[in-house]
What we know:
disordered N terminus
Amino acid sequence: MNPTLKKGGVGEFSRFASDNEPSAISNIAVNGIIGEFLEGAKGVPLGKVDLNSSYDIVVIGAGPAGSSAARAAAQRGAKVLLIDRRRHIGIPVQCAEFVPQWISRHAFFSSACVIQTVDKMVTHLPDGTSYEMKSPGFMLDRSLFDKELAASAVLSGGKISIETEAVNLSPEGLAVERGSKRELIHSKVFIGADGAHSSVARSAGQPPLKTILALQYEVVIPEPQNHVDVYFHKDYKGGYAWFFPKGRTANVGVGIIAQKMTLLSKRMDHFLDYLVGSRKLSSVEIVAKTGGSIPCEKPRRTVFDNILLAGDAAGHTHSITGAGVLNAVIAGEIAGKVAAEAIERGNLQHLQNYEVQCQEAFGKSLAYSALKREFLENNWNQPNIDFEGLIRKTWVGFKEYYEGRRKIELHPSFPRAEDPPL
């Protein structure tokens, strides 16, 4: 079902999910109560959360994937601990904050998280042509969105511990540092949702993910707009630039391949000059800066004995657009559900269903986007390349992008390296 969003609402938690999910938790004042939930689950101060206790499931990382996993597992009766190394959930924001409206079918969030709605996407090519496509979605306040997802996990029965950094995952358990203390957490299942540079993935023997590097400024805009803009230029190698409105401001950014990282700042300056020259901006007034790494490779293995990877840690990101929030929420939901079922059945082999269900949910889209990225990068600097034609074949805003998608298999085979001894 679709949400009814009221601008500036005090923050009813709205559950926008399928009919077989629990009903909404309502009448919770977000601004007053979120902090209370994050400061202590069920009246237990954060600093008193017993990390030495044994848990059914420990989730590392309280982003969209981790909080969704913790909520789904706790709803099914598992003893769940959600940890995050940051002092404030949701901060810093490393996201362009535009998500498709379908996210409302999977996540707990209030109307207060939605800065504005978006109707369409306009793609701009270097030859001056522009193309529109319907792209209904939301511009989020990601910091509040992440806090609300974490609060949902706590409301469902999970515990949470911030300023708790995962150091090493071994057969003895998860070593964490909290303040000046190092502690060991024991759990039957660990879910790594700790981002593109995941320490859990490293513990599972996974090599670093291939990534795109992005730089983003939040700037003041002269007038609001109800669409998002995407810009391609040969200098933005392997990536693109974007202008995503947020009422009185907009997220303006550039993403390029990691090999060109030293040029990223110059490319941002180039884009800002273009926006001023085209009168998209009257001047460059920056109110915030951020940046980060975006996974961009084909789907890889996500189940390792008693370890699951979700979200950016698993590379659950579209290799062309860089979109990952919706997939992270879905993957987290699946991870939490499957992990809780495995605990209830006393059979960790059931965890293999996680990878299968993720493939069914979004695997084909990710596999296809990875093929398109390979084609894009291989042809970007080819002599006499029809650059506009290349973008039409490799960007989701054009019908040419989807030619051949039916040939992608739903369940690609994954490399089956030997399981780590965990």
